């Protein structure tokens, strides 16, 4: 039993998995924190693009 405890303490195979889980959770947390900061500017660009496309479409339709 003593040998089993010693080998269990020395075994570090699961430590790498825990490291990856912590790193992944940190990255996901950062992405969730950044989304509100990026959402408004992206919405503005999307709205301007839609306006430009609607304007170009109306010009093309009227010119035909």
Automatic annotation (TrEMBL):
<keyword id="KW-0812">Transmembrane</keyword>
<protein>
    <recommendedName>
        <fullName>Pilus assembly protein</fullName>
    </recommendedName>
</protein>
<feature type="transmembrane region" description="Helical">
    <location>
        <begin position="20"/>
        <end position="38"/>
    </location>
</feature>
<keyword id="KW-0472">Membrane</keyword>
<keyword id="KW-1133">Transmembrane helix</keyword>
């Amino acid at each position: 039993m003593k040998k089993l405890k010693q080998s269990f303490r020395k075994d570090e195979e699961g430590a790498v998995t825990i490291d990856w889980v912590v790193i992944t959770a940190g990255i996901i947390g950062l992405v969730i924190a950044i989304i509100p900061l990026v959402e408004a500017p992206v919405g503005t660009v999307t709205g301007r693009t839609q306006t430009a496309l609607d304007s170009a479409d109306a010009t093309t339709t009227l010119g035909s």
